[in-house]
């Protein structure tokens, strides 16, 4: 896709109009189509669904576009994840210090250890899904969820309502690869899950720093980076259920 001077000018103009919010839009048949940003935060963007539908009526989307106000055009980790999900190039425009970068899908995937937290994309359940896919070759379905769903009694209990739908069943003993459903704090629903690594912290799908200890877990704490740590008393007391996937062999 060619980022012409005309397209760059149109994007820059849109970025100026909505500054300091992020602008967003798409490129269709060589033309920039500006869209409304319905995201709540100034450092986020979400294209209005009707604007996206209108753009798709004009032809195939060639690229997604958004601006980075008061920042560089370097793609964030969340940007890189979204690029892979959409499988389309992304154009990022820094503003007001204008700079353009174009990113194409290249197979990026966030590490299991040390990834940043983004609810719904990189949270404790996303880590479970990625661990099972990369380490065990098992695909686990995703479930839609809102931030802090665990505090809402009217919201489905993500783990308790769905673990059997995802192919898990409850067990009494524990082995490597099991998922421990936990309650962290006083919440309406059990709100966290960890993978039990037993005494082997090594991962097959990526190189990691050594992690010493017995009875280790892998998990993604809320608003923190994903980590491995010892499955100590504080975690044992939080466990509500131990579940095992039907495609994992008993040891």
Summarize the structure.
This protein has 6 helices and 11 strands.
Strand proportion, as a percent range, falls in 15-25%
- Rg of Cα set: 21 Å
Largest sheet: 6 strands, antiparallel
Residues in helices, as a percent range:
10-25%
CATH structural class of the largest domain? Alpha Beta
Summed up, the domain count is: 2
* Terminus-to-terminus distance: 51 Å
Summed up, the helix count is: 6
CATH-level-2 architecture of the largest domain: Alpha-Beta Complex
Verbal overview:
The protein has 251 residues and is of the alpha+beta class. The protein folds into 2 domains: 5-103, 3-Layer(aba) Sandwich (Cytidine Deaminase, domain 2); 124-245, endopeptidase fold (from Nostoc punctiforme) (Alpha-Beta Complex). Helices cover 22% and strands 24% of the residues. It contains 6 helices and 11 strands. The chain has helices at 5-18, 49-58, 77-86, 124-136, 158-162, 233-236, and strands at 24-28, 31-35, 61-69, 90-95, 99-103, 168-171, 179-182, 192-198, 216-219, 227-230, 239-245. A 6-stranded antiparallel sheet has the order 6-11-7-8-9-10. A hairpin with a 7-residue loop joins strand 9 and strand 10 (227-230). It is elongated, with a radius of gyration of 21 Å. The termini are far apart.
Keywords, please?
single chain, 251 residues, alpha+beta, Cytidine Deaminase, domain 2, endopeptidase fold (from Nostoc punctiforme), 2 domains, six-stranded antiparallel beta sheet, five-stranded mixed beta sheet, 11 strands, 22% helix, 24% strand, elongated
């Amino acid at each position: 896709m060619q980022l012409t001077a005309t397209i760059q000018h149109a994007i820059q103009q849109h970025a100026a109009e909505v500054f300091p919010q992020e602008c967003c839009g798409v490129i269709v048949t060589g033309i920039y189509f500006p869209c409304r940003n319905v995201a709540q935060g100034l450092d986020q963007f979400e294209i209005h669904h009707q604007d996206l539908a209108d753009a798709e009526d004009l032809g195939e989307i060639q690229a997604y576009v958004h601006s980075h106000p008061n920042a560089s055009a370097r793609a964030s980790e969340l940007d890189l994840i979204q690029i892979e999900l959409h499988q389309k190039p992304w154009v990022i425009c820094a503003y007001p210090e204008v700079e353009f970068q174009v990113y194409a899908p290249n197979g990026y995937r966030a590490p299991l250890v040390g990834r940043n937290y983004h609810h719904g994309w990189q949270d404790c359940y996303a880590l479970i899904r990625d661990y099972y896919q990369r380490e065990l070759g098992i695909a686990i379905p995703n479930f839609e969820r809102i931030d802090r769903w665990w505090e809402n009694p009217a919201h489905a209990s993500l783990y308790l309502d769905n673990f059997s739908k995802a192919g898990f069943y409850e067990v009494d003993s524990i082995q490597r690869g099991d998922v421990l459903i936990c309650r962290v704090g006083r919440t309406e629903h059990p709100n966290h899950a960890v993978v039990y690594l037993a005494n082997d912290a090594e991962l097959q799908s990526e190189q990691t720093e050594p992690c010493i200890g017995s009875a280790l877990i892998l998990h993604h704490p809320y608003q923190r980076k994903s980590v491995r740590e010892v499955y100590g008393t504080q975690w044992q007391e939080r466990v509500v259920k131990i579940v095992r996937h039907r495609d994992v062999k008993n040891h």
